[in-house]
Design a protein that fits this description.
Elements lengths: L2 H4 L3 H13 L6 H13 L10 H19 L2 H7 L5 E8 L6 E7 L4 E6 L2 E6 L4 E6 L5 E7 L4 E6 L4 E6 L5 E6 L5 E7 L4 E6 L4 E6 L4 E7 L4 E6 L4 E6 L4 E6 L4 E7 L6 E7 L4 E6 L4 E6 L5 E6 L4 E7 L4 E6 L3 E9 L2 E9 L6 E4 L6 E5 L2 E4 L2 E6 L5 E7 L3
Antiparallel strand pairs: 1-30, 2-3, 3-4, 4-5, 6-7, 7-8, 8-9, 10-11, 11-12, 12-13, 14-15, 15-16, 16-17, 18-19, 19-20, 20-21, 22-23, 23-24, 24-25, 26-27, 27-30, 28-29
Helix pairs in contact: 3-4
Length: 398
């Protein structure tokens, strides 16, 4: 990252990154104070030409500012003796290759896990692997239309949306699309259409799940990431390359608004509190979760998260927001009110566990990952063969 993204000098940026890392270990005020003193002794917060009194004053201001900016989340982490979520079990899955979205079908209680050239399916009642959608190229997003017993998965290698029988998992049709880099895929209840978001083509293609034909293309003007529907005529879509949220009218099939997201840069993950009209966008460049008013685009609050965010989910019953990151952390945030949020846990998961799904019935969260080869310098992104799995985390009764 550049210095400008942090708003600090190189040394200040290093210090700030250490502060962010300290959230994972429930660092308290004394911990921050020791960190400040260590940096004072090494002259790393400010330049060497500044006198000692100024160093002390600035150190106090930095500590105070950090505690105020990051809010009560730090205090909660330090005070809570019992974590909100803990690991319940691990489910091993067959095959190798990359992985992307997970999707929980609340009707059939099946979990769809995209993985290389297959979609693995887990029965959530038994917790067992029950089968796969096979014959794909490189799969990404999944959507299910239970009224038709049809599922849909985007396939960027075939430049297609693949329709399959959601009961038998057999392929019905490969629908070839006009764009490239097929990624996030959702079923919009208001229009009854499937929307496929294409990163390289900077557009969304619309498919009729009944006729299995493409019916429209919506230019977005920037690279899209995840999207959510409010079920009442609007789809909200992260535009990663322009740091905006596009608002799509599903009746006109056009973008009607774009919300700027500063201080969020590089939005990827997106979730919605449909009752209070709040969007939760996970941003990679500044490692933040930004809360946005869905009605007017106002930025309400930004909270710290881990590195490499790729998914977030909102539980309307517990009012918890989950933000999963590649660095092996999932930040759990409590919605105290529509305009007030705090971090309640930084859940240690597994390196690479960046994508996630939420079961609204049990409140379990599911993250997929694999083991990665290590070298003397740390992790490589090369996966260990036959190590792919889904991690299941449960809500504790505090």
């Amino acid at each position: 990252m550049t210095n400008a993204e942090y708003g600090y000098s190189t040394d200040g940026r290093t210090f700030f990154m250490m502060i962010q890392d300290s959230f994972r270990f429930s660092c308290n005020f004394q911990c921050y104070s020791r960190m400040i003193l260590n940096y004072q002794n090494r002259n790393r917060i400010i330049t060497r030409n500044t006198d000692t009194n100024m160093k002390n004053a600035l150190a106090i201001l930095i500590v105070s500012g950090i505690l105020v900016f990051f809010g009560s989340g730090t205090a909660v982490l330090a005070q809570n003796s019992k974590p909100v979520y803990t690991l319940e079990r691990t489910i091993s899955l067959p095959g190798n290759g990359g992985y992307d979205y997970l999707y929980v079908d609340p009707v059939t209680r099946h979990l769809f896990v995209t993985h290389g050239s297959t979609v693995n399916v887990i029965n959530l009642k038994s917790g067992k692997f029950i089968g796969s959608v096979t014959g794909l190229g490189e799969d990404h997003g999944v959507a299910i239309d239970n009224s038709l017993n049809r599922g849909f998965v985007s396939d960027s290698r075939q430049r297609a949306l693949v329709a399959f029988n959601s009961q038998t998992l057999k392929t019905i049709k490969t629908i070839h699309l006009k764009g490239e880099d097929e990624d996030a895929t959702i079923l919009d209840p208001a229009s009854g259409k499937v929307f496929v978001f294409e990163g390289d083509s900077k557009q969304a293609e619309v498919v009729d799940p009944k006729t299995l034909k493409e019916v429209d293309i919506i230019p977005l003007g920037a690279k899209p990431e995840f999207a959510v529907s409010d079920g009442h005529g609007h789809i909200y879509n992260n535009l990663e390359s322009s740091s905006q949220i596009a608002v799509i009218d599903v009746h006109s099939m056009k973008v009607v608004k774009k919300y700027s997201l500063g201080p969020c840069h590089g939005p990827s993950a997106l979730a919605l509190d449909n009752t209070h009209h709040r969007l939760f966008t996970g941003c990679r460049a500044n490692k933040g979760l930004t809360v946005v008013n869905a009605d007017n685009g106002d930025v309400i609050q930004t909270l710290p998260i881990g590195a490499g965010v790729d998914a977030d989910r909102y539980d309307p019953e517990t009012h918890l927001i989950f933000v999963s990151c590649f660095d092996g952390t999932t930040t759990i945030i409590k919605e105290e009110s529509p305009d007030k949020y705090k971090v309640v846990q930084v859940l240690k998961t597994h390196m690479g566990a960046r994508t996630m799904a939420l079961d609204p019935q049990t409140h379990n969260i599911y993250l997929s990952s694999a083991d990665f080869e290590k070298t003397n310098t740390g992790y490589h992104h090369r996966m260990v063969p036959d190590s792919y799995k889904v991690l299941v985390y449960k809500l504790n009764n505090n």
